[in-house]
């Protein structure tokens, strides 16, 4: 099974679960519709002014420029966003900006 087929199957499972909850969904798995969705997501992510990664609970909170918050439940994303522990001297009350 190729990646496009895997994406379509995953989208189909999500839509089936939403149908069980009597909530309608919309899947975009390729072509211009997926390209449009990705472009909109990029614009939306550009409104983020702060990110709180909470690996212990599998959640990331995005804080947007308008003050709104978006919470994303994910087993992987918080770990992708977390930085390795540092044990050198630094102000413990402020996040490190070192990249």
Summary of the model, kept short:
By secondary structure, this protein is of the alpha+beta class.
Question: How does this structure look, described?
Answer:
With 99 residues, the chain is an alpha+beta fold. It has 2 domains: 1-43, no CATH class; 47-83, no CATH class. The chain is built from 3 helices and 3 strands, in the order H-H-E-E-E-H. The protein has a 3-stranded antiparallel β-sheet with strand order 1-2-3. The chain is extended and about 50 Å long. 2% of the residues are buried.
List keywords for this structure.
three-stranded antiparallel β-sheet, extended, 99 residues, alpha+beta, 18% strand, 3 helices
The total domain count is: 2
Strand content: 15-25%
Low-confidence stretches: none
Overall pLDDT level:
87
How far is the first residue's CA from the last residue's CA? 38 Å
* Order of helical and strand elements: HHEEEH
Strand line-up across the major sheet: 1-2-3
Q: If you compute it from the alpha carbons, what radius of gyration comes out, rounded to the nearest whole angstrom?
A: 18 Å
Beta strands, count:
3
Shape label: extended
The number of helices is: 3
SSE blueprint and pairings:
Blueprint: H1 3-20, H2 31-45, E1 48-54, E2 59-64, E3 69-73, H3 77-81
Antiparallel strand pairs: 1-2, 2-3
